[in-house]
Amino acid sequence: MAEGTAPAALGDSEFDRDTAVAARAAEPGAYDTGLSRGWTIMGAVNGGYLLAVAARALRDALPHPDPFSITAHYLTPSQPGPAVVRTQQVRAGRTMSTGQASLFQRDEQGNEVERLRVLAAYGELDALPDDVRTSAKPPVMPGYGDCVGSESAPGGRPVAGDTAILDRLDLRLDPATAGWAVGAPSGVGAIRGWLGLADGRDHDPLSLLLAVDALPPTAFDLGLKGWTPTLELTAHVRCRPAPGPVRVSLTTRNLAGGLLEEDAEVWDAEDRLVAQSRQLARVPRG
Amino acid sequence: MAEGTAPAALGDSEFDRDTAVAARAAEPGAYDTGLSRGWTIMGAVNGGYLLAVAARALRDALPHPDPFSITAHYLTPSQPGPAVVRTQQVRAGRTMSTGQASLFQRDEQGNEVERLRVLAAYGELDALPDDVRTSAKPPVMPGYGDCVGSESAPGGRPVAGDTAILDRLDLRLDPATAGWAVGAPSGVGAIRGWLGLADGRDHDPLSLLLAVDALPPTAFDLGLKGWTPTLELTAHVRCRPAPGPVRVSLTTRNLAGGLLEEDAEVWDAEDRLVAQSRQLARVPRG
């Protein structure tokens, strides 16, 4: 966040404006939106941002507000510009509902092309009981001040090319998992960092969907370069996050057959595991 | 497997017969099937079996044979008896395709009710490159002969009531994770075991979908009793399994807010991680 400016409020921030959806009066369940160039990297629209846009349409379409479990299949590359999200209520129960969404954009010929398809279960986080009985531990990593921002990475920003999304994020990597930026990946397959939004907006369940896919890919820490296209990503949002940046821990344990899984854990300032995700992605060819 | 009988062959076994689907001539993409009473426990049709039925219909409907990533949302309780699976090809690419399926049954009034909805990416496991670079290690557990079958559990079968599925499985639990059967759960939230099919059929990608949801729930090892209904389950099949029983390792790290995640890893006889899954389930009320 720039010095001397007030943090952006939940509901009035870059992320909120760029994920806004508008219900079509003439087509029930359909929402117009515009994919922002601000959440791209190397020309590609970030998959977590796309998921958040679809999730926001589903939040409007379903009787419950929060994505407890949400799966996206990425079908074709999204582009900055207009898009429409079509939603369907699959089931509505008392405490949970299930919905489906597809995000479409028009190609050069004006034909609609499906970019991603989403299946999700929504509930109300604030209505859940308070029981917590977890054996999961927060990631062991330095404090926010001892992690490295992209602006201070040796040799400059670690990712070459179009890095618009880095201007929207307050991302500080654990130096132990940032060696790839200077040609010395650890080989472990882990990336850890603190993640806030650059304008100071706090996290909410929707921005956690961004958080699980906003760090550099674990493939970088394995010494692989290039793009790691996500085939499928499933995220569970388990708790409303406390104010402040979250800690995100990414790990890959099984790279095989040209594919890898990438697991994310997101921990809030109160040491609660607020989100988990797993994605299946293609190994970079580079 | 009963002594003195030949093992059932892939394609000609209880599992194959009970997951068989028949394309409806008059309705493209629709498949009739019958849910078998043989895969029920405590009156409920096993979620992994249901996933395998839907996956089999998708295998027929899509141009690629193997479920690389498959997600199911369980909407209403399935019953043994007739069902129809309606499939949709979402996208067909050169090496992968995406499909959707819904399984319906009729209620007492004759109305169709959706039981589960599935979204999946299919590819061809045998066409994947041979690269393996994994840091994941097989679970540390006793050999098949030193694990305990349900028939030899102290006090008899560990699960009371209708346990038809146990007759179809060759399930041998690591004694360290079977204490709950005699009232002494470890409290760790882990269940490990060897899993084959009782008629000796070897595993294939479809039966791995059964395998990820066929062991007793981790909730038992946490000292919780009763049913753990799955809201959503996502499985990745990463490799065609070698012949013989697989090792399945289940863990739960975060029980909170009345929900828990259950992760499964499935390892084959050649020490390959052949499948991974995660499900979000409700904590038993008991």
UniProtKB/TrEMBL annotation, chains A, B:
Q: Where in this chain does the entry annotate a coiled-coil region?
A: none
InterPro entries per record: ACOT8-like_C (IPR049450), Acyl-CoA_hotdog (IPR042171), HotDog_dom_sf (IPR029069), Sec_Metab_Biosynth-Assoc (IPR052389), TesB_ACOT8-like_N (IPR049449)
Q: Where are the transmembrane segments?
A: none
Alphabetized SUPFAM superfamilies for the sequence: Thioesterase/thiol ester dehydrase-isomerase
The Acyl-CoA thioesterase-like N-terminal HotDog domain is annotated at 37-118
Q: Pinpoint the Acyl-CoA thioesterase-like C-terminal domain residues.
A: 159-283
Which Pfam families does this UniProt record tie to the protein?
4HBT_3, 4HBT_3C
The superkingdom listed in its UniProt entry is Bacteria
Would you tell me the protein name for this molecule? Thioesterase-like superfamily protein
**What organism does the UniProt record list as the source?**
Actinacidiphila yanglinensis
Q: What is the lineage of its organism?
A: Bacteria, Bacillati, Actinomycetota, Actinomycetes, Kitasatosporales
